[in-house]
Amino acid sequence: MKKLLYITAVVLIVILSSTAEGHIGTLSTSPTDGQVFDTSPDSVTVSYGVDVRLTSIELIANGEEVELDYSLNYAPAKEFIIPLPQLEKGNYKFSWTIMGPDSHKMSYTIQFKVRPVEE
Q1: What is the distance of C-alpha 6 from the center of its chain?
Q2: What burial class does residue 28 get, using C-beta atoms within 10 Å of its C-beta: 0-12 exposed, 13-18 middle, 19+ buried?
Q3: CA-to-CA distance for 11 and 43, rounded, in angstroms?
Q4: Which uninterrupted H or E stretch holds 5?
């Protein structure tokens, strides 16, 4: 009976530790989700507490993809700064995928807005 309890405890610890390791939360982003700008932001910055690999990025404005001048190099880093072109007024959705140290892929999205210039 003690052996069965010991095996169950070990299995639970392994499962819980691999689940926790596989889900790396974003430490911070700039812009933040829901942020509103009066002018176009210069970049998107994504930060993590551990080295991760950035594997994809996408910026959508009003249903259309916006071309970004950024080359993915897949090098591990804690922070990624993606320069943005001059953005027109509108709603934007920035999505990215990272690969954690355990090769687990995670996708994230933030939305932000560039408001019209007051006349």
Answers
A1: 38
A2: exposed
A3: 44
A4: helix 2-22
CA 89/CA 106 separation, integer angstroms: 29
The low-confidence residues of the chain, meaning pLDDT below 50, are: 4-6, 8-21, 119
Burial class (CB in 10 A: 0-12, 13-18, 19+), 66: middle
Q: What is the pTM of this model?
A: 0.77
Is the CB of residue 60 less than 8 Å from the CB of residue 91? no
DSSP characters over 9-60: HHHHHHHHHHHHHH-PPP-EEESPTTEEESS--SEEEEEEEEEEEEEEEEEE
Nearest residue to 114 (alpha-carbon basis) of 97, 83, 93 = 93
